[in-house]
Amino acid sequence: MSGKKNQQSTFMNNRSLAKGNVKNRETGIEIIGTIPWGTHLCQFYQTKEDIIDILVPYFKAGLENNEFCMWITSEPLRVNDARKALSKKVKNLEKYIQNGQIEILDSTEWYTKSGKFDTDEVLQGWIFKEKQTLEMKEHLQNVIDSASEVIISIDANKRITTWNKSAEILTGYKQTDVLNWSITKLTMFENTQKLLDLIKYLSTETQPSYEDLVINTKNSVKKVLRVTGSSIKEKQGSGVLFIGRDITREIEIHG
Which residue would you say has higher pLDDT here, 64 or 120? Predict the structure, then answer.
């Protein structure tokens, strides 16, 4: 086995967890499975096919989990080879590239841009890229939090992954309290079974569905939330996104 080290890195976007929580990430590499956030891997290989077998599922898992990915290639696998191999397993790869979710670069574009390896230059490049990723994450969170509609998402395990400011204001439950909770742990839904049936229905449908859900806020005030639910496809299954608004006053006026 050769001692070559494949040059690659992935920033994993921990967008769905409350600060301080730890969650394993899916590597996509069968022999490794899930790993704690921040783990560094060094893979050894003999052939170009070995690299493809290791890194294609690795980056595929990252894209499917909405993580920012950077693949820095070197001999014997160059940029065009990497893109071709990844496109066979990842639908709409070009869309991911255009959206900036993945960058595939040659090592000469990253490690030796000045003609030689410069440790400080490489380090500053990684710091800038990480800062850029965090800024994108912060921007997205600001967009979600500034929305007047209630935005709630749950993953395939029915755990809450998004709970915006409008959801906080309406329900009285803070984002930091409910993120990563099972949706069934929230006692605010008057008819939990109706909610679970809706989630089950949405997980198998491609079209959005509309529903009125009665909730009791943390302060025991009854509200009616009109939601649009849609499926979010994930590797582990289908999550659900709910976007809703408070129609309690409308019902009181019109009956």
Answer: 64
Nearest-CA neighbor of 93 among 56, 129, 118? 56
Indicate left, alpha or beta for 90 from its phi (over 0: left) and psi (-120 to 50: alpha). Answer: beta
Cis omega (within 30 of 0) on the bond before 76? yes
Q: Quick check: helix, strand or coil at residue 98?
A: helix
Mean pLDDT of 135-143: 78
* pLDDT confidence of residue 234: 67
Model confidence at 44, pLDDT cuts 50, 70, 90, reads: confident
85 and 197 share a domain?
A: no
Task: Look up residue 201 and give its two tokens.
Answer: 């229905």
- Nearest one of 70, 61, 67 to 136, comparing CA atoms: 67
Verify that 179 and 127 share a domain, yes or no. no
Residue 228 domain flag: yes
Give the global pTM: 0.55
Beta strand extents in the chain (DSSP E only)? 9-10, 25-26, 34-35, 69-73, 102-106, 150-154, 160-163, 209-216, 222-234, 237-246
